[in-house]
## 1
Amino acid sequence: MRVLPCGSDAVLIEVDSAEQVQQLHGALRAAPPAGVTELVPAARTVLVRYDPRTTDPHRLRTALTALAELPRTAALPPAGTTETVRIPVRYDGPDLAEVAARTGLTERQVVERHTAAHYRVAFCGFAPGFAYLTGLDPQLRLPRRTEPRTRVPAGTVAVADEYTGIYPSPSPGGWHLLGTTALTLWDPAADPPTRLRPGTAVRFVEAQEHPGADHDPR
């Protein structure tokens, strides 16, 4: 773990994996050091903003280093909320056949593997409401497309590298498109505007088996 200065009121923590980001983010949310005002997770980093009136980079670095030196299970508990969001998907995407061919699976097996996994939102980025979900079956992990599409429709469910995600609004995109959901994931008028926030647990289900989205408190 590296702790780097980032402006006058933040430090950037670098770790080695998305899993470590989720665990570190969860630990900091559960017991934030004095003066911390905001946490922003990303693919391999967590940005920690602080109030310079109540702490300073040296004290914050000391607290973060102490956290890292604790036994892994004590220092980095799993991030998450008590909520599981179930997302109904019609697996009719234009890249489903290609994903099956490149992974050596049938289209049915691709769907089964995508719906069998337990996902968690690692971080949000790229576009408002776009959540990067970890937990993707290793056999479904493919590099991004060499030629991105200029427009991907809202609600498109896709995979790329170690992540799966859902395009919350129309945008360009280079992921492999497996299907679509009718669920609205980004609404600026709502509070909060996105359903998928860092730490949220997610499951995908085939639309015909589960006509509506559902929150499962656990």
## 2
Amino acid sequence: MEVDILEKLNILVEHIYHSGFTIETKDKYLVFDYYKGNIDLSPKKTYVFVSHGHGDHFNPKILDWKKKKNNIKYIFSDDVPINNKDEDIIFLKAYEDIVLDNIKITSFGSTDIGLSFLVEIDDINIFFAGDLNWWHWKNDSKKEKLSMEKAFKEEIQRLKGKDVHIGFLPVDPRLEGFFHLAGDYFIKEIKPKYFFPMHFGDKYNTSTKFIHKIGNSSTNIVEINRENQIFQL
């Protein structure tokens, strides 16, 4: 298995597909917004995050994983449409805090539906945006564009002072010349150690284009060029 080795945080990050990622620590396994692709679940304690109910961020089949694992918990935005609610599923609204097995989880808002997450584990702060993005559509009115910009920036400002080590944010190629706005603002304002582009489907050159667009940065912008690419941080 080919692994890209980056500066040490002692975790493994795997890009599954689109906005789907896993993060493996010494004794825990986190899954974010899985909806399709090859995934090999870890025997470690597993925590499955779903930022919202859109079909490219949530697949109800993830609930079948608990048939094979008794050490799994789910952390869902409260808009996720499921019927079989049980004690292993925790629903959150924006701006709530919970602690699970020494993992601190804080929910933030979105500029679409659902949530974004700040996860503090093993002294590492991970921000996963879900569909929190600067959705600058060229056909939107000036008023809509300004409203979106304001909403996105206000949400990101809530992270100031949180010392984010890893950020996952959309760089959606459908936004064409404006695909980089959210990531650029996040990197400049929050200054994470690592930035993982996401939400680009099969268009893996988007990751490379984003790196070139941003240019020199103290943040390590991770180049993703295939499904199931693994990074050792």
## 3
Amino acid sequence: MTGRSRTMGPVTNTKKNKDESEILKQLRIKRKKLKQEKLLERLKKTKIDSENNESAPDKTNKTEEEITPASKKLHTLSIAVPGSILDNAQSQELRTYLAGQIARAACVFEIDEVIVYDDLGDTGSEEKVQVDEEVYGIKTARRCCAQLARILQYQECPQYLRKYFFPFHHDLNYVGLLNPLDAPHHLRQTDEFAFREGIVTNLPSKPGQSSVNVGLYKDITVDKALTPGIRVTVKMQPNNKGTKKIRGTVVAPTAPRTETGIYWGYNVRLALTLGNVFCQSPYPGGYDLTIGTSDKGRNVDELPAQSLSDCSHALVVFGGLSGLEAALENDEKLMVDDPSFLFDHYLNTCPNQGSRTIRTEEAILISMAALRSKLGTISEQGNFTKIKHGNEK
């Protein structure tokens, strides 16, 4: 199965020669230093703003219309879920539906990255299966993890591209039961928007150009010679009068969001252990805000609004049936006894719960809703008003 790196590229560990516990220790030190620097910057900014306000009372700020999404800092929001939650489902249909619930939650809360990690370690009895090393960066994974990752990728992919990237597989036997994501990048043929997802086709093209299927009535021509079969993000060009040929420009997968502010889907990553969730981050410098969820954590209501907004890459980690404590215990390379030591914040997002247990798929919805106001600008992206639908005049 081929595809673009945004959704299916391998994530390599750049510090293979170091022990994971040492890497995590360095990450904690780096995060602490980063927090101190940000605090100093805020204090300086407050002082400068105060002086400017005193010396220039007539100074006006930019209006909301002048502040474009492209001028805003690009924030990302990641979640990590254990693949073992599928093993608690009692049938193949329920396994599939559970994975679909995770995909829906990720889309609703505009998650940029979903990490599926193995929380069982060597204690699990389930046999491991082979996975595409080019896609995931690993050779084998527990079947529940591989299936959850595959269904998440399937759901994220626009409908008109699925037949190219997802051939028949028993993990996808019941995906017809799933509710569609109906995400902004799942455009219909009659929808009009500046960007579209596509697959490079093998139709003949001029040198330096390629044909791409972006879900329209015919392929479009893009400005680069690319290998057929890969997934690309295309910026559509306005049609010239008197020509029927549609043209576009291949852009980075993050371009729709940085240029328009609109949510453009999530990436999927597989992690063999809880420690690898942190160590193999695709972002330079890793995650600068990490949150663990547990009924043993601090009450989330004690955090003020916007208190977690000063970050670039946030990560929220969820536990399985036995919680994050069990995931930590099953990771032999993590030399800590308390999972709260792994995170900047260890939170109880549903205090005074009425049920003895909260399922992971429920915890994601509850936690992301509770954290939305705390994360602030991370959640402030575009909406569907920028897409012109076919039935609109």
